[in-house]
Amino acid sequence: MKHLPKHLRPHWRYLAVGLEGWPDADIDRRAFQRNLWFAAQNLLGDAGSADADLTVYNFEFEDGEGEALVRVRRGHTDQARAALACIDEVHGNPVGVFVRGISGTVRGCEEKYLGCRREVSGERSVVFADAKRPAVVRGGMLDVQVDSAFVGATELDFE
């Protein structure tokens, strides 16, 4: 079977997506892809989501931070961004999703926008709600463990 001529092949754009969640969140590629498809289908309808053809290429998530590479058809990047904005939880874990940038090639997207995750500084104990509690420190943010959940705070909250 012959390849399609270049002018008939589909053209793609690649979205670099940043993810933030609680440090104990367990999110995998399959769950993120499923939520992305559902968000696109609910927002754009069946025909619109099929036209956009959103596919997660690369996915990495650990310690509450991650990144993904999402492929979308050229001309549908605005709809893809809107569908990504509709995702607020994955697999029951609340998650923040934001687009870092858009590129025409996988390599360009990876070089420009991916691999820019903040370093996880580590853990420390803080006094929160009149008790000493463990906290995960990421940049200037702290995720304080209260019972079985986390509370977000900043360095300014402890000064």
Summarize the SSE layout with pairings.
Blueprint: E1 12-21, H1 29-52, E2 55-62, E3 65-73, H2 77-85, E4 89-90, E5 93-103, H3 106-113, E6 120-128, E7 131-138, E8 141-146, E9 149-154
Can you tag this structure with a few keywords?
single chain, 159 residues, alpha+beta, five-stranded antiparallel beta sheet, four-stranded antiparallel beta sheet, 3 helices, 43% strand
Question: Can you offer a commentary on this structure?
Answer:
With 159 residues, the protein is of the alpha+beta class. The protein contains 3 helices and 9 strands; from the N terminus they run βαββαββαββββ. It has helices at 29-52, 77-85, 106-113; strands at 12-21, 55-62, 65-73, 89-90, 93-103, 120-128, 131-138, 141-146, 149-154. The strands form 2 sheets. The chain has a 5-stranded antiparallel beta sheet. Strands 6-7-8-9 form a 4-stranded antiparallel beta sheet, with no helix packed on it. Helix 1 runs antiparallel to helix 2. The chain is elongated and about 70 Å long. The N and C termini lie far apart (68 Å).
Terminal CA distance reads 68 Å
Uncertain regions spanning at least 5 consecutive residues: none
List how many beta strands DSSP finds. Answer: 9
What characteristic shape results from the CA principal axes? Answer: elongated
Helical coverage, percent range: 25-40%
Query: Mind describing the biggest β-sheet?
Result: 5 strands, antiparallel
What is the strand arrangement across the widest sheet?
2-3-1-5-4
Strand content: 35-45%
Q: Averaging pLDDT over every residue, what do you get?
A: 88
SS class: alpha+beta
Q: What is the gyration radius calculated from CA atoms?
A: 19 Å
- Report the total helices: 3
Q: What is the N-to-C order of secondary-structure elements (H for helix, E for strand)?
A: EHEEHEEHEEEE
